[in-house]
């Protein structure tokens, strides 16, 4: 049995999603909840039928806990992941590893040194429409991609009835680090690391954190990517668009309903080519029927394998002996931290930021 603790319930939508998803894995179960906001943590622990532990050190010292799921604010994620690694606990983080490149690399060093199984849940990579977009780009059907656009937005900050907490709008980091992070890692997955970024943000609701934002990413070969995100967009459908030298891919959500996992039935896909238009359209419309295995399932599998190896050999496999996928996951998390740091610097200074400045 894999025994897990939940560290922070910052985003109730994601917290409940993790708890709900764990029901599908009889080999794992949550045994405790911690939150720096004791009132919030106690309430969620009661909702999930779990004990609340107010002392984080005591929780991480427990020998019966194998790993932790971290659903904290973006500003707190790095410190919690580092503490989990120092305690030898496997860790699954929600979206972000850190908010700066230096911080991300520091945490990554702790992860590697502790030889824990670590993953960041980048859930939109598993959406069938995004898998189809990546397939279209990598197959060469579009030629060379010259422009990419991703939009991920909802209206929780302005909805008449909403459970959207004010802490999301009064935090140091706003929508870029939440909904906007999805567009950034999707863009990085397809186009790689940009040369420079420019960010524009607004505060439509008047709070301290940005709630409406867009960024432009520039690449060495001339490709441009646009990522849009917002907390103040009513019924805004998800969109992912790729424009290439030989064709275009347009995909997205049909109904404007925000979900953690977009279903094939919610999505629309269109593709356009030149003389290959019919073939391209047919290929692009054949989205996967189901999403790839979740990060949670792969993480639990890795923990189980590590436990079995430790029981038989006395130690788990070092991270450099794991499949390349696991090191790639950590590299992706570091890349996202670098992008977020550059975007917030651009938003603060009002200028273009070159990523080479962080090297």
TrEMBL record:
Q: Signal peptide: which range, if any? A: none
Q: Does the keyword Disulfide bond apply?
A: no
Query: What name does UniProt use for this protein?
Result: Putative dehydrogenase
Among the GO molecular function terms of this UniProt record, one is: nucleotide binding
Annotated ranges, domain GFO/IDH/MocA-like oxidoreductase: 132-249
Source organism of the structure: Cohnella phaseoli
* Gfo/Idh/MocA-like oxidoreductase N-terminal domain mapped to chain residues: 20-120
Task: Answer yes or no on keyword ATP-binding.
Answer: no
Keyword set, alphabetical order: Oxidoreductase
Q: Which InterPro entries match?
A: Gfo/Idh/MocA-like_OxRdtase_N, Gfo/Idh/MocA_oxidrdct_glycsds, GFO_IDH_MocA-like_dom, NAD(P)-bd_dom_sf
Q: Which Pfam families does the record associate with it?
A: GFO_IDH_MocA, GFO_IDH_MocA_C3
């Amino acid at each position: 049995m894999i025994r897990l603790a939940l560290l922070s319930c910052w985003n109730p939508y994601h917290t409940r999603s993790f708890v709900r998803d764990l029901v599908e894995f009889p080999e794992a179960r949550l045994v405790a909840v911690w939150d720096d906001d004791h009132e919030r943590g106690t309430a969620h622990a009661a909702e999930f039928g779990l004990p609340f532990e107010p002392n984080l050190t005591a929780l991480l010292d427990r020998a019966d806990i194998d790993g932790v799921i971290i659903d904290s604010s973006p500003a707190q994620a790095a410190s919690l992941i580092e503490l989990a690694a120092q305690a030898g606990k496997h860790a699954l983080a929600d979206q972000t590893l850190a908010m700066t490149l230096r911080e991300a690399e520091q945490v990554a060093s702790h992860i590697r040194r502790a030889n824990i199984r670590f993953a960041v849940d980048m859930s939109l990579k598993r959406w069938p429409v995004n898998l189809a977009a990546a397939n279209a780009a990598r197959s060469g059907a579009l030629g060379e991609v010259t422009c990419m656009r991703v939009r991920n937005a909802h209206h929780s900050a302005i909805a008449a009835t909403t459970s959207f907490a004010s802490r999301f709008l009064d935090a140091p980091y706003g929508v870029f680090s939440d909904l906007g992070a999805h567009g950034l890692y999707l863009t990085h997955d397809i186009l790689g690391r940009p040369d420079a970024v420019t960010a524009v943000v607004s505060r439509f609701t008047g709070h301290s954190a940005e709630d409406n934002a867009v960024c432009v990413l520039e690449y060495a070969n001339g490709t441009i990517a646009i990522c849009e995100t917002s907390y103040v967009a009513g019924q805004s459908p998800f969109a992912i668009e790729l424009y290439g030298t030989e064709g275009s891919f347009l995909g997205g959500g049909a109904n404007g309903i925000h979900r953690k996992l977009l279903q094939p039935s919610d999505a629309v896909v269109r593709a356009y080519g030149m003389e290959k238009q019919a073939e391209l359209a047919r290929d692009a419309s054949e989205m996967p029927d189901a999403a790839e295995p979740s990060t949670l399932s792969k993480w639990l599998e890795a923990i189980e394998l590590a436990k079995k190896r430790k029981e038989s050999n006395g130690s788990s496999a070092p991270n450099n002996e794991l499949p390349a996928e696991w090191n790639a996951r950590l590299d992706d998390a570091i890349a996202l931290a670098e992008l977020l740091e550059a975007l917030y610097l651009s938003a603060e200074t009002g200028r273009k930021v070159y990523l080479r400045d962080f090297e």
